């Protein structure tokens, strides 16, 4: 069975051109992950639960952690881990971050201190991950991470699809951007 996962990464600079610490973009990113756009969520209900390798976190704790990390790291990285099928659980995304084979490979230097929130407000379950680095990630290193993350996500997604099929749950393929994903 072919499954399709997407891992998208971007970074935010935590320094001004003159080298001063700035958290404006970081604060916006963390707020967006937690609450989305004001016009879509005017009462600002939290969109999910924050997770890390150590467990669950409140939004306030994640904001404080992120601001502290920005003081000592030049870059904030955000990843989006997206699956097409499979009704993934929060634990599937968390285990992807903690159990992927690259976590044990020293040469990949993937941060072990991250925060993650799962969203189910689109056709595809997805998780937003935030972590910090003091240098940018090289393209080859990012490609290595992406490949390992996708392989791990595919594995969990295939398990969930098999469980759903065994229970007689059928999930229709969604239209995405006008193209049928089926």
Walkthrough of the structure:
- The protein has 182 residues and is an alpha+beta fold.
- The chain has one domain: BirA Bifunctional Protein, domain 2 (2-Layer Sandwich), CATH 3.30.930.
- It contains four helices and eight strands; from the N terminus they run E-H-E-E-H-E-H-E-E-H-E-E.
- It has helices at residues 24-35, 59-72, 90-99, 139-166, and strands at residues 5-13, 50-52, 55-57, 75-83, 114-119, 126-133, 175-176, 179-180.
- The protein is globular and about 60 Å long.
- It starts with a strand and ends with a strand.
- 25% of the residues are buried.
- Mean pLDDT is 85; it is low at 173-182.
Whole-number tally of structural domains: 1
The largest sheet, given as strand count, sense and whether it forms a barrel, is:
6 strands, antiparallel
Spatial order of the strands forming the largest sheet: 1-4-6-5-2-3
SSE series: EHEEHEHEEHEE
* Inertia-based shape: globular
Q: How many E strands?
A: 8
Taking the alpha carbons of the first and last residues, their distance comes to: 12 Å
Uncertain runs: 173-182
Sheet-strand content, in percent, reads: 15-25%
Number of helices: 4
Gyration radius from CA atoms, angstroms: 17 Å
The fold-level CATH name is BirA Bifunctional Protein, domain 2
From the 3D coordinates, which CATH architecture would you assign? Answer: 2-Layer Sandwich
Helical proportion? 25-40%
Briefly note the structural class of the backbone: alpha+beta
Mean pLDDT: 85
Class, according to the CATH hierarchy? Alpha Beta
